[in-house]
């Protein structure tokens, strides 16, 4: 036989998954990260506690109780494997059972391991009837492994009615299997059991109804096959001894748990009384002392170990507790001042809203309002003051209104002078020019700090004098130092296009106020844009920043005659929550820039610029469908279309319209 044939026969025909896993076990390894010094650092896969040698770990756990060992075993897989799967670690559990001060925990039955026994006695779980509340005190009925929540009267009665079977007065000759069925006993303090058998305070025995029916069926089958009662009982003598042994052991555990509960109640009462006396002697409150991190840790540790707190225990942590209580006092004092200060800010916000609603003149922004002398002095005083709420009202009422009116008047004079200077005028000249230059429709301003940002957002770019006074740059309300950094310049584009509109209307710039022009409901068309882009006055002054030289023409019929006009729709879609989000998802929006062949003429008619055809408003949709295919988008889609196809940075009402179905 050749070597090649020999190797061929020795090679397995198929690699098993175990061999493949063995080969690739250490292939994928996490690489060590390099530190800033360039040396690789070891990636730790386990915590330091789980790296302790078994001798050290067992020495530590020899001083704690079974509950704490169980908690350690559930920290990670390594500790779980160490404490549960190795027989030579059972001495840790046995030693922990003897660490209870009031009484050692009884030994487990042979069918329990030490770990499973600890889990059986101390584990929590949901109520076996309602399933809602977590039962933290272990099993209510150990033999049947049942848990009931604090609402035991309702849950136990409900369980007994649905799943239980009372076995107290059942005839043992007719039902011999009752002697080896797993039962549990409770005092008859609940309605169903009390109403059925016995009086309150007596022990009543019950079992699971499903188990009772199962054994009853087995007994009937045996009886039908000719098995006598004595023979049937001899067949189940082992089960009787087993059940009796289990029930006796469950009673030992129940008595141990009852003793533990009594000891715990005594320890809690005694330690609470001792804590209260310590607090009164030191001039503290009971809650203040118990709320400190150090003393709370001592209190909980002693409670879990069922030990009483001594004077020596407290003296060892007294200095730390004193420091923590002083820190708590300082924190509460600071929080009280902050609460008073926040109430003052809330009151001042209400005062600012009143000033805005009642004033017929421009008012400052909220950040500027807080910098006015009477307001800033009040805020500075109450930032460190410990005055009460009554004193806040007294100080606010004392001469605040008169001082505020005076300072607002001074502020308005200063702002008027600054903005007139931007227009190249002095205050003396403005008084001789008829209509106040700052109230004219051509008086438009930009904030140079946030102009570029606002061009890409729905925020207003072109501001009149009143809007400029209340303007706040982004972040100004949080940082008052940014208020003084506002830099306004003349809005040349808005002023220029507004002057063009005034000339088209044959009006005089010196006599035309912004409010008067708004009442006319004028509509213009942007001749620079492709498509039928129609604008009102405010939209025109914002739209002009898209072009270097914007050309306009009048739409004589006015705003009310504009087809498909939905002024304010953009704000609804962008800013209104529920209503806007619902509309945004609907494909009902079309682009006005994609209509180059259609213009609007007098009377609301449509005219084809190429063929000169006249169509009525009523038949407008049929004409549009014939001339071209109409593209319909959802709101996000029309925004994306405007940016990519027409270079529109921020969508406005004039850029789209809602298609009616």
From TrEMBL:
Question: What region holds the F-box domain?
Answer: 46-96
> Region (Disordered): which ranges?
1-39
Q: Which InterPro entries match?
A: F-box-like_dom_sf, F-box_dom
Q: Which residues cross the membrane?
A: none
Kindly give the Pfam families that the UniProt entry links to this protein.
F-box
Signal peptide (UniProt feature, chain positions): none
Q: Where is the composition biased (Basic residues)?
A: 1-12, 19-34
Report what the protein is called: F-box domain-containing protein
Q: Which species does the entry assign this protein to?
A: Schizopora paradoxa
